[in-house]
Amino acid sequence: MQHPEQPQRLSVVVMGVSGTGKSSVAAGLAQLFGLPWIDADDLHVPEAVARMRAGLPLSDEDRWPWLDRVGASLADRTAAPRGVVVACSALRRAYRDRLRAASPELQFVFLDGSPALVRQRMEQRTGHYMPPALLDSQLKTLERPDASEPGVLHADIAVPVQQIVADIGARLVQRSKDASMKVSA
Ligand SMILES: Nc1ncnc2c1ncn2[C@@H]1O[C@H](COP(=O)(O)OP(=O)(O)OP(=O)(O)O)[C@@H](O)[C@H]1O
Ligand SMILES: O=C(O)[C@H](O)[C@@H](O)[C@H](O)[C@H](O)CO
C-alpha cells in the first residue's frame, strides 16, 4: 500500500553495525511506504560471506566493489521508480559518501544502541552467518555520523521495531514536506 503522504522519490539506507536491526527496520519502512527493500547482505560475493562466517572482518578492498553494487541498486530507477529502502552497514563516512555519489537524494537512518544490547540480540538470533565475535571489529570500524553529515536520522534501538519505523517514517515525511516548501519558496 502506498503511504498517504508518499514523498517524491525516497532513497533510504538503514545503517549501523551488525545486529542493530537494519533488516527489520528497512523491511518495516518499505512496507510503510509501499516500496521494495534490499538487504545489502545479499549483494556480498560468496567469498566475503565465507570470510565473515570464519570470523574475519572485511577490509576496505573487500567493501568497495560491494558498495558499488549497493549504489547501483539505489540508483536503479527502473527497478524502483518511486524509491527503495536498503539495509547496509555503511560503517565509515567514506562508504556513505560513495553511496551518496551513486544516489544524490540519499538519506540515512543510523541505528544506534549499546554494544551490550546489540551483542545480546546477535547471540539470540539463529541462522545468520555473522558471528557475534565480529561485533568488536564492526564497532571499531564504525565512524558515527555527526552533525556535519547531511541527511542522517538517528534512531535508538532500545525501542520496538514498529516504534522506530513509525517515528522515522513520520520524520521522513516531514523532511520531504520541508524540502518541497524550500523549493517553492
Ligand atoms: N528494535 C528492536 N527491538 C527488539 N529486537 C530487535 C530490534 N531490532 C532488531 N531486533 C532483533 O535483533 C536481531 C538483529 O536484527 P536484524 O537481523 O534486523 O539486524 P541487522 O542489523 O540487519 O543485522 P545484520 O547486519 O547482521 O544482518 C533480530 O533477531 C531482530 O529480530
Ligand atoms: O561492512 C560489513 O562489515 C558488512 O556489511 C557486515 O556489516 C555484514 O554484512 C552485516 O552486518 C551482516 O551481519
Give the arrangement of secondary structure elements:
Layout: E1 10-15, H1 22-33, E2 37-39, H2 46-53, H3 60-75, E3 83-87, H4 93-102, E4 107-112, H5 115-124, H6 135-141, E5 152-156, H7 161-184
Parallel strand pairs: 1-3, 1-4, 2-3, 4-5
Question: Which key features would you list for this structure?
Answer:
185 residues, alpha/beta, Rossmann fold, 5-stranded parallel beta sheet, 7 helices, 5 strands, 47% helix, 14% strand, globular, binds adenosine-5'-triphosphate, binds D-gluconic acid
Description:
- This protein is of the alpha/beta class.
- It has one domain (10-184): 3-Layer(aba) Sandwich (Rossmann fold).
- The chain has helices spanning 22-33, 46-53, 60-75, 93-102, 115-124, 135-141, 161-184, and strands spanning 10-15, 37-39, 83-87, 107-112, 152-156.
- Strands 2-3-1-4-5 form a five-stranded parallel β-sheet, sandwiched between helices.
- Helix 1 (22-33) packs across helix 7 and helix 3 (60-75) packs parallel to helix 4 (93-102).
- It starts with 9 loop residues before the first strand and ends with a helix.
- The mean pLDDT is 93.
- Residues 18-24, 41, 87, 89, 121, 125, 128, 130, 157, 160-161, 164 line the site of adenosine-5'-triphosphate.
